[in-house]
Amino acid sequence: MRAVAGTLPPFTSVAAEIDASNAVEILAVDPHGRVWQTEQSVANNNVFLGLAQLPDTSNTLMAELAVARHSDGRLELVGTDGAGVGVSGSMCSPVWT
């Protein structure tokens, strides 16, 4: 992941879920279809780590997204690209597959 500083892009879709350590993970899509992620540094506090762009290993740009937690704590990102085609990936923080 690549952390950013300065002005952030507007987001077109945002989702949040509790991860395996009970911290809030926030995912967002920018107008260019890139997915961004941040998370609480520790559960139940107001401090979030830096916003970072997730690596795009499939060259798939997202238009909308949602996230859900598996029983084993992994997060599943699901969404659609600009043409409405479904896209998904699992996250075992901070690596997506």
Please provide a brief summary of the model.
Helices cover 0% and strands 46% of the residues. The chain has strands at 2-3, 13-18, 24-29, 35-39, 52-53, 62-69, 75-81, 86-92, 95-96.
Structure in words:
There is one protein chain. With 97 residues, this protein is mostly beta strands. It is 0% helix and 46% strand. It contains no helices and nine strands. Strands 1-5-4-3-2 form a five-stranded antiparallel beta sheet, with no helix packed on it.
Termini separation: 13 Å
Strand order of the largest sheet: 1-5-4-3-2
Low-confidence stretches: 92-97
Helix content: under 10%
Number of strands: 9
Globular, elongated, flat, extended or rod-shaped: what is the shape?
globular
Q: Oligomeric status of the shown chains?
A: single chain
Largest sheet: 5 strands, antiparallel
Key structural traits:
97 residues; mainly beta; 5-stranded antiparallel β-sheet; 4-stranded antiparallel β-sheet; 0% helix; globular; disordered C terminus
Which SSEs are present, and which pair or pack?
Layout: E1 2-3, E2 13-18, E3 24-29, E4 35-39, E5 52-53, E6 62-69, E7 75-81, E8 86-92, E9 95-96
Antiparallel strand pairs: 1-5, 2-3, 3-4, 4-5, 6-7, 7-8, 8-9
